């Protein structure tokens, strides 16, 4: 089923609201932060136009930057995520190609595909985010610690959101 523009708009506004209001203050041991807004970017349709994806990545990051007062960090990270998404998707394309009715979830694509797709993109996004935030090779250990812990935390949160919002297909 094709995702309508209305559904995308509701997801966009809803996830940004949740990130800014609820998830901005949630962290584990001051290292793991859930950047749940990447769920919106990951759940864009498989055949989404890459240029539009870059725009949505930049726009969502810009909104997060505005509310979290992180000038350009999330805009850059989200734009990078959306720039890499078509390459990841082409590398993970099944032999028969993608079905336009499938969503990029473990329910439609299976766990191995979903794990490579979501975990890989979240890891790159978070590595870039924390590298820009800390901006010093002197703190490489802190960058790696924040990246790994936040990637795991975000991945679990995104997977739970998918479980709660998606309907299984037959």
Keywords for this entry:
170 residues, mainly alpha, 7 helices, two-stranded antiparallel ribbon
N-to-C series of helices and strands? HEEHHHHHH
Structural class from helices and strands? Answer: mainly alpha
The biggest beta sheet is recorded as: 2 strands, antiparallel
Q: In percent, how much strand structure appears in the residues?
A: under 5%
| The number of domains | 1
Please report the number of helical segments.
7
Low-confidence stretches: none
* Count of DSSP strands: 2
Radius of gyration of CA atoms, rounded to a whole number: 15 Å
| Cα end-to-end separation | 13 Å
What overall geometry do the principal axes of the alpha carbons give? Answer: globular
Average pLDDT works out at 91
Strand order of the largest sheet: 1-2
Binned, the helix content reads 55-70%
Characterization of this structure:
With 170 residues, the protein is an all-alpha fold. The protein has one domain (5-165). It contains 7 helices and 2 strands; from the N terminus they run H-E-E-H-H-H-H-H-H. The protein has helices spanning 5-21, 38-42, 50-68, 73-91, 106-109, 111-134, 140-165; strands at residues 27-28, 32-33. The protein has a two-stranded antiparallel ribbon. A hairpin with a 3-residue loop joins strand 1 (27-28) and strand 2. Helix 1 runs parallel beside helix 3, helix 4 packs antiparallel against helix 6 and helix 6 (111-134) packs across helix 7. The protein starts with a helix and ends in a 5-residue tail after the last helix. 31% of the residues are buried. The mean pLDDT is 91.
